[in-house]
Design goal:
heterodimer, A: D-Maltodextrin-Binding Protein, domain 2, D-Maltodextrin-Binding Protein, domain 2, 3 domains, five-stranded mixed beta sheet, 57% helix, globular, B: mainly alpha
Amino acid sequence: MSATNKVWILLCSILLVGSGLLWLPSVTFASGPVRVWFSHIEAENETLRAIARDFTAETGIPVEIVSRRSVFDAPADLVNNAELTDRPDVVFMQAPDIGGLVESGYLIPLEIGKDLRERFADVAFKAFAYQEKIYGIGYSVDTSGLLYNKALIAPSDLPKTWDAFFATASALTHINQEGKVIRYGTRLNPKDMWFNYPIIREYGGYYYGTLPNGAYNAYDIGLDSESMQGYVHRMKKAMSENLAISNPNHTESHISYEFACGKVAMILYGLWNAQIYQNMGVDYGIAPLPHHRDGSVSRPLSTVQGFVMNRFTLQPESARAFLTFLSQDENQQRLIEAGNRGDQKTGERNPANIAVMSSAYVQSDEILSSLCQIGKQSEPFPNIPEGPIWYNYTPTAFRTIFFGDQKEREVDPEQHLKMLADRIRADVASMNERAEPLQMTGTFWVWVLCIFSGGIGLRLFVRRKKGRASYRERLSKKETLLAWLLLAPLILLLALFYLYPIAHNLYLSLTDYSGINLRDYRVVGLSNFRYIFTAQISGLVSLTVWTIVFAVTVIGLSFLLATLFATLLERIRFSLARIYRVIFILPWVIPAVITLLMWQGLLETEGGMVNQLLGWFGLPAVPWLSHPLWAKISVVLVMTWFSFPYFMVLVQGLLKTIPQSFYDVARIEGANGYRVFTRITLPWVFRAMLPMLIMGLIMQFNQFGVYLLTQGGPAGDTLGAPGATDLLITYVFNTAFNTKRYALAASYSVIIFLFVGGLALGAMVIGKKRAEGELS
Amino acid sequence: MKSKERLTMGIIHVFLILLAVVTLTPFVHIVLIAFGENVIGTGVTTPQSFTLRHFRLLLTETHFLRWMLNSFIIAITTVAVAVVLVSISVYALSRLRFYGRDHLFRGILLIQVFPLTLAMVSIFRIFAAMGLLNRLAGLIVVNAVLASTGLILIAKGYFDTIPLDIDEAARIDGASRLTILWKINLPLAKPMMTIVAIQSFVIAYNEYVISSSVMTQGLDRMPLAVGLQSMITGQYGTNWSLYCAGAIIGSVPMLIVFYSLQKYFIGGLTEGSVKS
């Protein structure tokens, strides 16, 4: 072995060992402290740390409080970390998230003593009750109420019933001589199901019905009941009286902003923008909702946040002791005060503890005390895994009912509500469907074997022919060894971070892994694939066509624009071009998450900057994101905006490689700039960039950015059908994730991977053949 | 003739300015929101009054500078790892003739088709098995892998354009492979290195999905992208102004890097994509 090779081997070994060292697991102790995942509010974490110190002083049990980014991440992170060495023992999370975790066996039911039960509002336990057991202790109740502007309505004049609410709102609405509304009694969002839920209840509608034992019955959906007609009627009347938003694209944010501007007397909302109301000088209050007709209390929906216990905790007794300790009245008091940022009393935390509710801290503040009255009587959002299925359909369905379908025709509400309820029931059924293991017959395996061996045989045949025909280079063994050694670090890393996920995904696609079966999933064979190819194939063809059209247009446009502008940049002074280049590169450098959201705002039909600009030139407003065809165009344009800068940078240098003689010949022949561009520049650049273009095209198939921009919408009139801008990948994943059927999602990704990978391979082989053809 | 020339230049500038406007529009919006007062949501209305409060809040009440430092450490180290990884791998793929080369190269390109963001459960397991959770080292490794695989196509294309004759001449003179790579190939491949460096920097600096899943503990250990995101859904309610302010400051390092290195960058990318 030569000296150089020894050096190479040494170098690679160092790299390998070095990377190995990075991965040495951190030193962990067998029995660590009780680990609590808590808040995103640092003051609150600090307070809990102080409480933990008291606890440790009293019991000798060490406790570690972990600051968390967001409570929304808690369920997924718990599943990931539940059985690790530094697993959390107690986790702060939202009650609606516990369903899937309980079903999958990640939480321990808690014994709630009489003393504890009496010291907290019922809602604190009801929210965490699942199949007659309680899995958590509520700490804060996030809810909404009747938010009112004191300058426009006195607290004593607030309506006592829903009928009075609409009457008062109507009376408070003022229209000036020009027919413009200058003040609103209220603003409702007809598409909404959360804040309007109490009104829906008033008219006899409901979400999930309950069984006699108090558990939810996910199949009992009270949206297609006859009484819901009353709700639709009431809301339509409110719309005609200017009590509801008239722009179908507007949301609660718009309503909240109108309230902040002092234009609305009452809205159904929470305190999330309270700081802004204060800044803008609105003197606001929050009151309990009007009562129902029969005199009973109207309950707004609420999200209770509280503490649950990891089933895999190694020290359940200590964890329980700490849970009891932090549930003591004085500790709850300290936490709530920290969470509301002391004297700021922001209302971010709304206590579930009764002693805290009646404390001076809360009672001295009109808003806080009112908020806990509301919270106490609120209805916790269903914590069953089926809970969020609502969100997927109600906005679209109510949009159609109240604002008309895609062609802006009115629809029959009764029929549409039935479709909505049926759709939700179908998803509930789908979520609870357990995949039956699919036994493969002997014939199937024979087929697989035939295809497989046939493929290999064909391959060998072709290879042999080629090998004989063309000259075959001798590959030295030494060089092969050296090459693989050099590539070993990369291959190892790829195996870890690409091959393993792909293999694991393949495995998951053969199981019944789902949101309600996250742990004890079993292999069910090709059952998921059968489901895909039997039940769902109908929409996939048109989706695939649109995906291909989308990818080709985006890459084609990006390429054309990039070449054009790179050519233009060539012609101007370098110092100027340098500045232009930095501007043009911006879309590539700034995170797409934020720019996509900006585009969403800019492309608003009413008030969006783009339409305002068009207006200045006397052009009509364009429904950029709300009309199916325009939405498709917008998506293509925005995605082109994202991908052209990178191509332009590529092309710019590429232009320098075009031989000057080409241009000379063109000049002699008297070709103008346009002809030079189309006959010389474009073909040259295209040929040189082909590999990059192919890769770019492939990457557009996995484009999730579209989803951030349009959520796949505008949705079709049939609920659950692909929206106008849904790509293959966004649609299939959305359907699988809506019903938490993760194994199905894995199967889809396997199919898409094979499909797109096949396309890519084909393109590469053809590209290579062409390149070889040109060489010879 | 002169006036015609001037007219063409004028038209060119009109086109360029138009594109610049289109490119900048969303950023104008970001700036408006970052400086704007009382912003609810992103598309609700254009702010009427302006303030520096969000920038002050960002620097005093969040771990923003810490996040930026984290991201910077991650990005710089990723660049170092990726450059070494890419040069070794590309040298082998481009300069050595060995069994399985084409298949390997195609394989590396093909596996990227798999949308890694959908396999977070598996990625998490890898991280957990290696004790990389909640450590910057883990993010560096995974970003380096993402960057190297993504850049190998361009890098190999570039390396292929460096004439073999030079290598051979050097070998006849008795230079070892290592000397050839170190003294001849790498200096010639400097533009390619710059591309790999800048692109890995951008990739590592902006990576969000994997980081957010594997960095579960501690607010001060997060990279910038994850920290910024937490301001939309976390501590400060839906605070778009804070988020936009963060995005503006956060992108400055990248713009500086791009502006100062663009000469290499453009030259390098070109030749890499000519023949791959």
